[in-house]
Design a protein that fits this description.
single chain
Length: 111
C-alpha cells in the first residue's frame, strides 16, 4: 500500500506517512466466509480445551484408583457413599452391584 501511495504522490513532492480507513464495506459473501472461519477457530479451541479437561479427569481417576487400591475398605466406603447419594435423590430404582466373586460361589458346577 505504501508503494502505491508513493508512486501516486512522489511526482507532487508529497510524502504520505499515515492513512486512516474509516468505513470498510465487505461483500456479504466475504463476511460469511470470515464468520465461518472464526467459528471454526472457536470450535477448534473448544475441542482442545475439552481434550485437556479429559486428560486431567483421567489423571484424577488414575490417582483415585491408586488410592482405593491401597485400601480395600476404601472401595467399600466409596460404594456406600454412592448409595447414600443415590438415596438422597428419591429415585424409585437403585441398582445394587454385587461383586462377581460372591456370585461365583452360587453357580459352581456340580463336582
Amino acid at each position: 500500500m505504501q508503494s502505491t501511495l508513493d508512486e501516486a504522490t512522489d511526482p507532487w513532492g508529497v510524502k504520505v506517512e499515515r492513512v486512516e480507513i474509516k468505513d470498510v464495506r465487505l461483500p456479504v459473501q466475504l463476511q460469511r466466509a470470515m464468520a465461518a472461519e472464526a467459528e471454526a477457530a472457536r470450535e477448534a479451541r473448544a475441542k482442545v480445551i475439552a481434550a485437556e479437561g479429559e486428560q486431567k479427569a483421567s489423571r484424577a481417576l488414575k490417582e483415585a484408583a491408586e488410592v482405593i487400591a491401597e485400601s480395600p475398605a476404601a472401595l467399600q466406603l466409596r460404594f456406600l457413599q454412592t448409595l447414600n447419594a443415590i438415596s438422597d435423590e428419591k429415585n424409585s430404582t437403585i441398582i445394587f452391584p454385587v461383586p462377581i466373586d460372591i456370585i461365583r460361589h452360587f453357580f459352581k458346577p456340580n463336582e
